[in-house]
Amino acid sequence: MKIISAILGFFARIAVWFGKIFNKDDVSSNPAGRGTGNEARPRKRLVDGVDADRFTRLCAILVIGFVSVLGAVLIAASLRSGSHQIPVEEPEQESRPSGTFTLTFGGNVMPTQEMLDSAFVDEKFDFRNGMSELSEVLEGDLTIVGLCGQVNAYGENKQLKGFDSGKNYPTALASTLSELGVDYIFGANQHALANGYDGMCSTISTLHARSLGVIGMTDDAPDKLNTRVVKVNGINVGLAGFNCIEGGDYAKLTAEQKGHIANVSKEALAERAVTDIAKLKKSGAEYIAVCVNWGGLGSFVATDFIKETAKKIAQSGADVIVGYGPCVTLGTEVISYKSGDAQKECFVFYSLGTLYGNNVYPGMPNIMKLKGNLNETQKKALENEKKLIAKSKVNMARSMTVTLNIARAADGTVSATQASYNPVFLIRNTGEAEENSHMKFISVPCAKYVSAEECPPVFADEKQWEACKAAFKAISAIAEKTGGRLVLNDLGHSGEEPDVSDGKI
Fold this sequence. Notes:
The protein has 505 residues and is α/β, with parallel strands linked by helices. It has helices at residues 2-21, 52-81, 113-118, 128-131, 171-179, 196-209, 255-258, 266-282, 304-315, 365-368, 376-395, 462-480; strands at 100-109, 120-121, 124-125, 142-147, 150-151, 168-169, 184-186, 213-215, 228-232, 235-243, 287-293, 320-324, 332-339, 342-349, 354-356, 398-408, 414-427, 442-445, 486-488, 500-501.
């Protein structure tokens, strides 16, 4: 700036000098301005008839213009050369609000054909009767459930089939989930392509149209597949989802199409999760939830692979990990680990079971077809498969929802202050009016009925009621293994509507 000022001053002086040269009358040579006869002769002029004031102003304008152009050229050259940078001040961030919210997870939604038939009333599908009671256990400020299959895969509700046949559900199912308070659908599993890649894209569009976001699959830019950050009551929540159980039509996809599904091998799952969690943190996530489809139908225990992978994902920065796939409730655990000088923990739910679905372990087809005279080995195999089918029928009617109370501490860190659960039971043959076939399948919160003095009318008989009590006891036993860290939810209702904004940060 000093150099530019000096240049400007120099040219200003030149302008004044030129003004004097071109002046008509040199006032200094005849200060009195009188014709005395002894006046000095006027100085010789270079140009005659030029107005000095106008010429001075013109010179000044030319000088200022020239200096401005010169300054711009010098600045541009400096920027291109990189010899120095113009400092840019980052705007001060607003102090983060002290926020709290509840994060709720439910198991898989996968209605069978029989359930679709029972929901078809007056020439349209209505799932509210069978699912309405779930609103009491899906009331989180941010609620996520799993979906096995597709919704409206062919458009206009064509070729609808249940999970056990075509896995293409009516749009009414998505509408009901939205009405229940669900915000996101975790759809990365081996059934996401039940009706092809186009069916998956149609499913996503149908869900979005009903204000349901998706996790683990996308019809948008693949590079944003698992880097979604949602702001809930002032807290940035990172969401990621993965599938490591291959099957269905996945192998038929093009390389580009595969990029729209978060499908990874078991061997690469932990590494991929670590990478995506790092991306979420870079995007501003303060609390990270990871959903994983890592077990197949008929798995009744959390395998070593599941437990070891969960530990790696937790230690990479996940705050909660929710498993899907086995369709039955597995175990739960709180993994504690060191992160620098801080002690952190991650809640892990290995599988929440089936929230709404009437599925049973199918058994090995070759064994189930055995008839006639069987040898001892065949008899033993057949009996074992029958036991597994009976076991699955009981266990797949049991599921759980979990709710985490998340809060920002005084030091700005975000963590779960409490975790609670709700056992859920599927009534396969309700005691409601028999002529109402659409009331046949109902998912209910066990806690609502287990303490009743007599059999509630929603159950067909005492046996069903006892099965609900048994489900409550079995799910509670799983929760007790956390040493009191997972408590029974009181089914209370939150007061005000949360501020939930969607979108990539």
